[in-house]
Amino acid sequence: DQFVVQGERLIESGFVPNIWPYPPNLLPFCVVLGSMPLQTATAVLAAMNAVLLIGASALLANIVVVGAQSRFRWFCIHLVVMSLLEAAALTIVVGQTAIIVYFGAALALWGLTWNRALFVAIGVSLLMMKPQIGLLLTPLLLFAGPVAVRGLMGGAALSAVFAAPAFFVSMSTATDWLDQIMRYDSVGPANA
Fold first, then answer.
1. What is the Cα gyration radius of the chain?
2. Do the beta carbons of residue 124 and residue 156 sit within 8 Å?
3. What's the rounded Cα separation, in Å, for the pair 30 and 12?
4. 3-state SS string over the chain?
5. Rounded average pLDDT over 155-181
6. Quick check: 148 and 120 in contact, CB under 8 A?
7. What confidence tens digit (pLDDT) does each residue in 94-137 have?
8. What's the number of CA atoms in the CB half-sphere (13 Å) around residue 104?
9. What CA–CA distance (Å, rounded) separates 27 from 23?
């Protein structure tokens, strides 16, 4: 209830959310942004999304191609294509977490390619910011070798660390989150 009251107070125009369907591991990220004035937080999130889109392009170019000129060409092609997609523009402007999750997928793939379990773990934890995506992709890591399995375990641990503060706020965090998800479809359009 307090979420709705604060949303109506802080958001003067546009879509005012009346549920919180996001997972508990997103709380530390939201606390940092929530400590800023709304316009500042919006600008920070937009800048961060733009930087992460550039980062994902660089990681994927580093996986696909050998040779500095070819890497730069693939980096540019990927960045231009991703930037032209409406979903990327909406994510940057509206402030969704899709690019963060996309960067997580690119980071996990980069970590797998270069046998870096720590980067796989960080990528997995970012993927789990949208569990509906992370839970579809992460089981595949069980079949991708020992670096992937270590990365998957590390990502699960890191996600648990990020989620832990939410359980200090309320022990019913997990069931509250599931309740919000079940109500999501009856609330209305996400980008109204």
1. 18
2. yes
3. 19
4. CHHHHHHHHHCCCCCCCCCCCCCHHHHHHHHHHHCCCHHHHHHHHHHHHHHHHHHHHHHHHHHHCCCHHHHHHHHHHHHHHHHHCHHHHHHHHHHCCHHHHHHHHHHHHHHHHCCCHHHHHHHHHHHCCCHHHHHHHHHHHHHCCHHHHHHHHHHHHHHHHHHHHHHHHCCCHHHHHHHHHHHHHHCCCCCC
5. 82
6. yes
7. 767 888 989 999 999 899 989 999 999 999 999 998 888 888 88
8. 25
9. 8
- Token look-up 């079949």 returns 143
The pair of three-digit structure tokens given for residue 111, joined into one six-digit string: 């970590």
Q: At which residue do the structure tokens 């375990």 appear? A: 153
Can you give the pTM of this predicted structure?
A: 0.80
The amino acid present at 96, given as its one-letter code, is Q
* Amino acid sitting at position 102: Y
Tokens of 186: 């009856």
- Retrieve residue 31's tokens: 């606390």
